[in-house]
Amino acid sequence: MPKMMRTDRFPSGELIDRLNPIEFTFDGKKIEAYEGDTLGSALAAQNIKVLSRSFKYHRPRGLMCVSGQCPNCLVEVNGSPNIRACMTKAENKMAVKSQNRWPSLKYDVLSVIDKLHWLLPVGFYYKSFYKPRFMWDLIRPILRKAGGLGRINPQAKGILEKPHRTMFTDIAVVGAGSSGLSAALAAEEQGASVTLIDKMEHLGGCNKGLLEEKLVKEVINKKSITIFTSAPAFGFYSPDLITLDGTKEM
After folding, report:
1. The CATH number of 17-97 is which of 3.20.20.70, 3.90.180.10, 3.40.190.10, 3.10.20.440?
2. Could you tell me the pTM of the whole model?
3. What is the pLDDT of residues 2-58, one digit of tens each?
4. Which of 58, 57, 87 is nearest to 70 (CA)?
């Protein structure tokens, strides 16, 4: 691979492996990254700040929370829409595309809506087009086509295939920061089988101090603690069912 272009990165540290460069595309443009990068970190390092357009007014959107809590960095990855760039690990030859823009991210025709925002308050379509009745029938297909987040491609490989598994555990701990790690260890010491779940790629949460490093090592060495990373817990159902997405067992 050719020499890496200049990027906005720290000279050392971080969670990336500078000895293993990879490459993916963003809207057809080649992006050079490192093993361990997320899509968001790799694009930010190349000074690419706008990743998509907002749902209603088509305003520029990019990295904001960098923790999977907001919809501002949603992109299409290998044909699958609405993937959070800040949480998705970059892989070699990934095809990443911006969303909610036409014909391009920089020149989005529907961004003109933002200039008319004062004419388009919340719920304007329900208040403006319901009389006469035929107006709603005419405008509804247009609104549906303009709205939505991303487009589903049924032909994309694996997009409709979601393998699943069912597990049983005595204690499930959601969140593997210092508190979650401590809770998992405490439950394990009482003889319980424990499943530790975190949405991040790594354990320890946002803090990287000596305490977190010590707790992570202890948890990993406990055979009775099952660990899932990159596994957002998106539902809790009575009496005791937790649902996860994209689980990666350590």
Report:
1. 3.10.20.440
2. 0.76
3. 444 446 677 766 678 888 999 999 999 999 999 999 999 999 999 999 999 988 888
4. 87
For CA atoms 117, 118, 122, 123, the dihedral sign is negative
Average pLDDT over residues 223-234: 91
Helical ranges in the chain per DSSP H: 39-45, 112-115, 124-128, 133-146, 178-189, 210-220
CATH class of the 171-249 domain in this structure? alpha beta
Helices H / strands E in the chain, number of each: 6, 13
The span from the first CA to the last CA of the chain, in angstroms, equals 30
d(CA 12, CA 53): 33
- In the DSSP assignment, the letter for residue 237 is E
